[in-house]
């Protein structure tokens, strides 16, 4: 009797584990957009202002500004120094300072920063291609 219950429990656990794995698998792929470029972050004075896309900016969200990427594009930003990455959504235009490629919200910048006092980071940008769309 105990063997039967043990087998049933094992079968159920295998079934639950495989279901969990299937539901957690992500069908996202990335493609390199730019390597070894610089990212900076928005100043707090921009909180509450409209972005170029019309969305209200918040430094507590995972968003970014780029000069040419389409609004709504999701970008994986990886800090080259520590390999930490974050996924942001493009909702604004910028940065307009020479040598900078992307402006991150403070939340996104802090998520990948190796130094909280840094003003810019060298990063790699990858475009997210979600096959679920």
From TrEMBL:
Q: Which GO terms describe its cellular component?
A: plasma membrane
The UniProt family comment states: Belongs to the RlpA family.
Location within or outside the cell: Cell membrane
Membrane topology value: Lipid-anchor
- The scientific name of the source species is Paenimyroides viscosum
Q: What is the protein named?
A: Probable endolytic peptidoglycan transglycosylase RlpA
What Gene Ontology terms for biological process does this UniProt record contain? cell wall organization; peptidoglycan metabolic process
State whether keyword Lyase applies.
Answer: yes
Q: What does this protein do?
A: Lytic transglycosylase with a strong preference for naked glycan strands that lack stem peptides.
Q: What is the lineage of its organism?
A: Bacteria, Pseudomonadati, Bacteroidota, Flavobacteriia, Flavobacteriales
Gene Ontology MF terms in the entry: lytic endotransglycosylase activity
Q: Which domain of life is it from?
A: Bacteria
E.C. number(s) listed in UniProt: 4.2.2.-
Task: State whether keyword Lyase applies.
Answer: yes
| Entry-linked NCBIfam families | rlpA
Q: Which UniProt keywords apply?
A: Cell membrane, Cell wall biogenesis/degradation, Lipoprotein, Lyase, Membrane, Palmitate
Q: What's the top EC group for this one?
A: lyase
Q: Where is the RlpA-like protein double-psi beta-barrel domain?
A: 40-124
Q: Which HAMAP family match?
A: RlpA (MF_02071)
InterPro entries associated with the record: RlpA, RlpA-like_DPBB, RlpA-like_sf, RplA
């Amino acid at each position: 009797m105990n063997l039967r219950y043990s087998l049933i429990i094992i079968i159920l656990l295998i079934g639950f584990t495989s279901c969990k794995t299937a539901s957690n698998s992500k069908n996202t792929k990335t493609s390199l957009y730019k390597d070894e470029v610089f990212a900076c972050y928005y100043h707090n004075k921009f909180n509450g202002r409209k972005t170029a896309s019309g969305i209200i900016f918040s430094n507590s969200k995972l968003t970014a500004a780029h000069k040419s990427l389409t609004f709504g594009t999701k970008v994986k930003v990886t800090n080259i120094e520590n390999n930490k990455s974050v996924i942001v959504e493009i909702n604004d235009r910028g940065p307009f300072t020479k040598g900078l490629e992307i402006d991150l919200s403070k939340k996104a910048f802090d998520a990948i920063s190796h130094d909280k006092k840094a003003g810019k980071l060298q990063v790699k940008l990858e475009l997210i291609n979600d096959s679920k769309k």
